[in-house]
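Hi support team,

I'm opening this ticket because the web form for multi-chain structure prediction keeps timing out on my end. I have pasted the exact lines I submitted so you can reproduce it. The total is 768 residues across two entries, so I didn't expect it to be a heavy job. Is there a limit I'm missing, or should I split the entries? Thanks in advance, R.K.
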Amino acid sequence: MENKTIRDNLLKEVAPHLERTTPAALAWILFLLSIIGLGIFAFITQVTKGHIVTGMRDNVVWGIYIVNFIFFMGMSYAGAIISGTLQLFRTEWRKPIIRLAEYLAIISLLIGPGYILLCIGRLDRLYYLALFGRIQSPITWDVIAISTDIFGCLIFLYLSTLRDIANLRDFKELNLPRWRKKIYSILALGYEGTPEQEKRLKRATDIMAAMVIAIAIIVYSVLAWIFSVTLQPGWHSTIFGPYFVIAAIYSGTGVLIIAMWVFRKVYHLQQYITRKHFVAMGVLMVVLAALFGYFTFSDYLTKWYGSEKNDESLIKILFSQYYWPFIFSNYIGVLIPLIVVGIPKLRSITSITISALIVIVALWFNRYLIVIPTLESPYLPIQDSRPEWLNYSATWVEYSLTAAGVALFCLLYTLASKFIPVMNVSEMADVPGTDKTEGPFLTEESLL
Amino acid sequence: MEEKDKDKQKKSRREFLKKSLIAGVGVVTGSKLIAAYIDKSRLESGEKVKALTTHGEIIEVDKAHIHTPRVSIKESHKGIPGRKFVMVIDLAKCKNARKCVESCQKGHFLPKSQEFMKVYLLQDSEKSAPYWFPKPCFHCDNPLCVSVCPVGATYKRSDGIVLIDNERCIGCKFCMTGCPYSTRVFAWKKYPEFEGDKQPYSPEASSPGKEGTVSKCDFCPDLVRIGKLPYCAQNCPMGVIYFGDIDEDSVTNGAETLRFSELIRDRAGYRYLETLGTRPSVYYLPPVERQFPVDKGFNGLDKNVKNRYENTPYSKTHKL
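Hello R.K., no limit was hit. The queue was backed up. Here is the completed structure from your submission:
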């Protein structure tokens, strides 16, 4: 049920991004590739010289690699949950931005697990996980969960892009090399938009949307359990599962707002991605900020109030050595969106984007504060150890690989946007009211 | 003719003496002599013994160079039948002589930056007395490290010992975060010391170490098999560390052998951080009626080692 003229106009609008790469875009891609190159060099250094080149030592055995792992996986689950929910609730404003959320889900999911591999001392034995895997180990749960998630998200992304792929195949004005068109026609799987096909596709997409939400929640809880099943004072917490899920969606909302801002600017989508979308995402961010703040507060409150010896020493470290990161991640990172988006007068595209940026950085530090100070304050005090082993500080190898991950994330986003439009063209061209399952849930009026 | 006969007799007598000597060696070192290794990298003891090589030659080797072969990885999963090992550490006698640390490092071919045994200077609260606290692996009966290992590289044996198979370990370090006692160490690079051990690898010896894998105190089952005490217990000048069998109800530090149950009863033995539910196999005797003042532990320490106690509660009130 597509409005052909709307569709063709939209396709004309996005076609230039698919057809050619501007010199600026090329420079951007080369820049990203050079950072990735540095990361590859750092990785080779780590493999040849051993993990001694990182800042990790016997006490802090996991450093910013695991922080990045949690961070990227969180973004992925956020992308999955946001796109799945918006899809299921038929939220009208989802249409121009849902593709960005789906990209977020799959791209960060491809990068995240790479960071846990960087923590592994013997990558040459990685296949032992399959060969000798023990189901009792939370790492095995994670392996199963993440691989399920990758498949689920890929299928969901594919299903929700299928109509656009078919459109690109049929769009005669598209000036692309033959091989590209060939790929579109193969990937379109003979989708012609017949009522029967449309019905089936809708159903399949809905099923997958529901599934990716469930998978994302399970997978991120499993990730949280890697920490909370241990006896470490800062990790052994029953609320880590839901806490991590909320933190994940929170950070992902921020990343999505940034992605909206960037693509709106670069691809000139001001007409489609408007203040309305930023406010809608901003409201979502406020809700999550409140939830995140609530979980953080109750986790630290119970640790502090009961003041068990080891919890107490952890809190002490957090409020002395890590004072500013702690204040930034758990106070500023919660309050800024609450104020900026919470007060209607302050809402603007720029202010929402800036607060989203603050949220992302704050959430990265939040994970840092969950992982590192805990490892620095074990049950037995760190003694009879090298003084330089007491505190963790990441080395250039770890920072380079972190930068490489971010660069790879940007690169994959860029390349994906050059292959399939960043907006869901076919859904945007759907004639309102033709789809019986459409219904208002979060309408524009209720938000503005 | 007669002279020749005499000569023959002499020869055969010499031969006989030689053979009996070999037999004697057999008696001294046990029936496993046939399968013994000669490892010249070990320090000489000066005491020479005769041994039969696989080529049938009789050679003279230093006693310290002979040792029995290590059990295979597969064999190391089983545990020594009918045994349940236990360690008792008498905190009243420890003065941080660090012989346990050093002998263990030497015995396991560890670099200076890796220790299986550590000595802490603990002080439970502000007003309570500081004491030295040697800490091996606790070989828990409910080991979290074993539970969390994704590939079964670390395992609990029937004799209570928790071992690591460094051929299996993928180096994910989950066990290191799982262990609440910070017992495990990681080989952050290829340490040259690992190459000092020329024997084939066995989890029972935790040696030669391997880059990118986790290792820890192993209760020295390779020594226990030949009737010796673990390095730490053997080499402690104060007899702090007792090792034994909980089913046999006896522990020994080499100088005295005691009934485990009586020792624990009379000296109020306890396990560290019992609340965590890990059920350790290492018991501590509280530091009462101590033989040395705590600051004796700093005597003769290397400056680098002394610096490791800079952050202790003790160092805040006393000058190191």
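A quick check on our side: Chain A touches chain B through 48 residues (CB under 8 Å). Let us know if the file doesn't open in your viewer.
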